[in-house]
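Input set for joint prediction.
Command: fold jointly, output tokens.
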Amino acid sequence: MDPNLRRTIILDNYQNPTNKGLIEDEGYIKLNTNNESCIDEFDFQIKIENNIIKDIRFDGEACAISTSSASIMIKTLIGKTIDEALNIINNYENMIDEKEYDSNILEEANVYDEIYKQPNRKKCALLSWSGLKSVLIKHNE
Amino acid sequence: MNIREEFPMLDKNIIYFDNGATTFKPKMVIDSICDYYTNYCSNAHRGDYNISLKTDMMYEGARKKIKDLINSSRAEEIIFTSGTTESINMVIESFFKNILKENDEILLTKSEHASNLLPWFELCKKINCKVKYIELDSDYKVTMGNVISAINENTKVISLAHITNVVGDIRPIKEICEYAHSKGIYVIVDGAQSVPHMKVDVTDLDVDFLAFSAHKMCGPTGIGVLYGKYDLLNEMTPYKLGGGMNASFSSNGEIEYKSLPHRLEAGTPNIAGAIGMGAAADYLKVLDLDKIREYELKLREYLVRKLKEIDNIEVYNENSESGIVAFNIKNVFSQDTAIFLNDYNICVRAGNHCAKILKEELEIKNTCRISLYFYNTKEEIDKLISVLRNSDTLYQQIL
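tokens >
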């Protein structure tokens, strides 16, 4: 990916994140994610209906990589079934961990395909995705 | 000889401004540890042969050096621990848990480090005592007036950092001790950020307990000290039990403990660590802690002045009198700033610095922290300032 385009997408999602701000609604599952290795902290709200992710919202204070990846995750996963979402998340985690993955399903999340070059940022890129994965797995049980 | 040449870490083209987290070590400290492992490695207090006698002498010699560093009246008042955190946990578990009762109050502040908060929270759950907070003034400082107004008839302990690790303010410990003692209140001081940077005289301050770590004062990691007044330490029930701390025991469970300080140091101690800490105390003595403090304050003044010349920098603790400076680039998350500075080999810490409830006072959760030491220079600050002046391209650079 062109470095300028990558930067523009990340920066845009950091400065104008999707669905930032929580709402009062009992229909949402709540999730707090703490990054044990740093200071990022997010609260998420997830609405699932008929096995489809209807909405995800988040709030919190975090670095550019964490915030933008939460925003991009939200755009990528809304409208997907739980199984589709888990598949996307698994592929995303593989990308960050430098394993084999399917870039065709990652949409905008492909912007983090070179984050492995900065090992200290990997956890920032994974924070939201791993948190959401745990919610979806729990929901599936 | 130039001080900087004595630190192997300082020839690596790194600008190190995270001395509140840990400090670099001079060669003489590193050598003292290698010397023990290379030339007389053996256990302490087992002096049946020459190298063990030497170890014993060096280990107890280190205790004496620490005693002199903080001007305690006897070496038995120096208990080696793994560091400040263990020292504070030990005094709470082995002393205060035994004497505090339901509804007794412990005075802390919201700018304390986690190690001076969490053990108290747990104690409160166990025995129903209560944590109260001394109010901070507009510079986040502790004033005598606020200490006095926080005290009531239930107050039994005041536990404070001498210098806090985020704001870097210095607490009026001597005055606090004088007032507290007149009311029968104990005072514990977390000296992790003060003992390395200024003369801390436990006799003059009259503190009941003082906790500090070697690695923040040019010494090795994994070793620190709990100082306590002899009579108070003598009342402590051992925190750990085992070898080295008992005089005798029998199969029916009767134990006779050794006298201080060994009673409170069960198991083979961190011998190499203690020897390294002793060497660090020697090193600071030669440099002179009064001169270290004077130099750091000048450096701080220069740093704050230069930071304030940059429009988009916000400094949070302009009026503190220590080498700790907390700042942010406006509208940039602290960690992104730290990562940007890392591109120039400048090490600063980003985050809440283990003071997670300070945000309630500071109204900002995370900051970049510069913590200076005597080996930092104006030239290093100039380099930092020039990088910060050109931070417009920060995100282009780090993303």
